[in-house]
Amino acid sequence: MKKTSHMTRWNYCPQCATPLEMLPMQEDSGIVERLRCGACGFTHWNNPVPVLAAIVEYQGKVLLARNALWPPKMFALITGFMEAGETAQEGIAREVKEETNLDVQSLDLVGVYDFQRMNQVIIAFHAVCDGEVRLSPELVDWRLYDLPELKCWPAGTGYALADWLRTRGQEPVFLTPEENAERRRGLD
Ligand SMILES: [Zn+2]
Questions:
Q1: Cα-to-centroid distance, 106 and ligand 1 (Å)
Q2: The predicted structure's pLDDT at residue 3
Q3: Distance from the CA of 33 to the center of ligand 1, in angstroms?
Q4: Domains of the chain, earliest start first
Q5: Contact 139/63 with Cβ under 8 angstroms?
């Protein structure tokens, strides 16, 4: 998945180019201060962005992949942004194809998870896939894991993996704080 623009600060109104300011306004929930345009009334709502994620089941194992920008020990689910005009199911099948070249044979929803640090909401699927793995340039490595080998990480997609493992009768094991720090080393 490409880097998001969640850290981007909006400086100007996209409608009239007036500098945006934190302005109070009456909303359904009361007076709320948000980044708004004093000239035309535009509000930057900053709603969370939906992100699709797939627990890819391939040859009876779970495929995790490593992004080129990630530390060497960091493997994770296939993720991507939804595009306009597609369903979540179409979007995750497209992302799996683009990132791994695999074809999705069946999909089921695992759950919906918040990822507030990134202002995202994660829609996680279990995707049974076949075909031949060919990674996109965004990804540099992939591994297949038997279910007992998988360790979950304490973030949105890791909780999705844990919930899915439970549906397979596998009690999820989470990384210890030390293991998680090691996995993320160099990321922050
Ligand atoms: Zn404006």
A1: 45
A2: 45
A3: 16
A4: 10-46 (2.20.70), 49-184 (3.90.79.10)
A5: no
Q: How does residue 2 score in pLDDT terms, banded at 50, 70 and 90?
A: very low
> Which long-range CB contacts under 8 A does 2-10 form with residues at least 24 apart?
2/81, 2/138, 3/69, 4/49, 4/81, 4/118, 4/120, 6/49, 6/118, 6/119, 6/120, 10/35, 10/44
pLDDT score of 8: 62
pLDDT band at 9 (very low <50, low <70, confident <90, very high): confident
Distance between Cα 36 and ligand 1 center (Å): 8
What spacing in Å lies between the alpha carbon of 46 and ligand 1's midpoint? 16
